[in-house]
Amino acid sequence: MQYWHKELETLPREKLEQLQLERLKKILKRVYQKVPHYRKKLQDAGINPSNIKSLDEIRNIPFTTKEDLFVDYPYGLLTVPIEKVIRLHTSSGTTGKPKAIFFSKKDIENSAELIARCLVMTGATKNDILQNSMTYGLFTGAFVMHYGAEKVGIFVIPAGPGNTERQINLMRDFGTTMLHMTPSYTLYVASVIYDKGIDPKKELKLKRAYLGAEPYSEETRKKIENMLGIDIYNCYGLTEMNGPGVGFECIYKDGLHIWEDNFLMEVINPETGKPVNDGEIGELVLTTLNREAMPLIRYRTRDLTRIISEPCKCGRTHRRISRILGRSDDMFIVKGVNIFPQQIEQVLMGINGVAQNYQIVLDSYDEMIVRVEIDREIFDGKIEKLVRLKDEIIDKIRSATMVKPKVELLEPGTLPISEGKAKRVIDKRTI
C-alpha cells in the first residue's frame, strides 16, 4: 500500500492550491522560454509568466486545442531536447496526422505513479493479478496501466484486446482478479462467459475491473457488475494528458478524483469559453502541472462533465468530476434536437431483454434508427414479446430524447464486436 500518499492526497485545500500555483508558474515559464508557439500566444495576450499571482489568472491565457498540436508538427511543442524523449504516444487526429505526445523518462515514471495511486485507491494490492486487455501500441492505455500496476507489485498479464476465448482461459488458468478493458468489450466478454455457462462468482476469481477509453452509462456499469459479480471503477484519461490515471474513482464510486497536484482543471461553457459554476455541466479543460517533455496549457478536452466540490468520504481533498457524459463533438442533431449517444445507451442498458450491443444509424436529419441486439430467449419467444419490447424501447428513447426513433431488433451476434473503442454512431449524412 505504499502508493497511498496520505499527506499529499489529503492536503488542505489552501496548501494544494499553493502547490498548484507554484507548479503553474514554473510550467508557464518553461513553455514561454522553450516553445515559440506558446510564447507568441502569451505575448499576444499580454501575459508575462513571472507576473502570475493567482490560479484565477489562468483564465486570461488562451486555450490550447487539438489543432494546436499540429502546429510545427511533430516536435514544435517540445520543451526538452529530442535526446530526452524516450517514448511517443499518439491519439487520433482529424487532419490525417496523429496527435503526437512525447514522454521523457520522468513523464513515464510520473504517469505510472498516478496509476499506482489510482489502483491502491480502489483497494488493489500486490496480491492481485491484472489482466490488461487494452491495446498495446501507440495509444497510452495499456502501457501506462501496465507500469502503474507493476509499481504496486501487481502481477500483470499483458493480454491485449480480442481473442475472447483466450481472455476467458487466461482468467481461469491464472486466477485473474482485475480487468482493464473498454466498457463495450467487457460487456461482450461478460455475455460470452454467460453463454458458456460459466459461473463467474464460483469459477473465476474476478474482484474488480477498470473501464475507460469510451464514455459509458451508469446502467452499463450496473449491468456488467451484475453479470460478473464484481466492482467496476470508472477510469478517465486522454493521451494528451498522460493517458489513463488523470481521474479515477475511489471505493465509494462517487465521482472521479482528479489528481490536482498534476492537473489544473476548469470546466467551461463550450460555446462561450467562460467558466461554469461547480455542479454545472460543461467542457473539461486541463493544464499539465508536472510534465517535463510536452506540457499543455488549458487544453480543451471536449469531454463533458461537472465538478463535484463536496468532500469525498474517502478523505482525499483532490476534487472530483462526474462520469464523462460524452464529448461535445459527439453530439448529433435529429429533428432539431441535440442528442448524445450515451442518452441512448442509458435507456437501452436499463431495459430487460436488451443484450450488450447496439448501433445508432443516422440516415437523415429527420430520422434516427436504433439497431439493438436482444437476449436470445426473447428472440426465440413469441412475437408478442418482441412487439412489447420494441414499443418499450421506442417509448423510453422518445421520453429521454424527445425524438421518436425507428427501432430494429436484432439476433445476438448480428452487430460487429468492438475490441477497442466501440463505434456506436453511423452517420450516413456525412458520408
**Helix fraction bin:** 25-40%
Fourth CATH level, the homologous superfamily of the largest domain: ANL, N-terminal domain
Instruction: Indicate the mean pLDDT.
Output: 91
Number of domains: 2
Going across the major beta sheet, what is the strand order?
4-3-5-6-7-8-9-14-13
Explained architecture:
It is a single chain. Helix content is 31%, strand content 24%. The chain is of the alpha/beta class and 431 residues long. The chain folds into 2 domains: 1-329, Rossmann fold, CATH 3.40.50.12780; 332-430, GMP Synthetase, Chain A, domain 3, CATH 3.30.300.30. The strands form 5 sheets. It has a 9-stranded mixed sheet, with helices on both faces. A 4-stranded antiparallel sheet has the order 10-11-12-15. Helix 2 (13-34) packs across helix 3 and helix 4 packs across helix 5. The protein starts with 5 loop residues before the first helix and ends with a strand. The mean pLDDT is 91.
Please give a quick description of this structure.
Helix content is 31%, strand content 24%. It has helices spanning 6-9, 13-34, 36-44, 105-121, 141-152, 164-174, 183-195, 200-203, 218-228, 341-348, 376-379, 383-401, and strands spanning 85-91, 99-104, 129-132, 155-157, 178-181, 208-211, 231-238, 243-249, 256-258, 263-268, 282-288, 299-305, 307-308, 320-321, 326-327, 332-334, 337-339, 354-364, 367-374, 406-410, 425-427.
Which short descriptors sum up this protein?
431 residues, alpha/beta, GMP Synthetase, Chain A, domain 3, 9-stranded mixed beta sheet, 21 strands, 31% helix
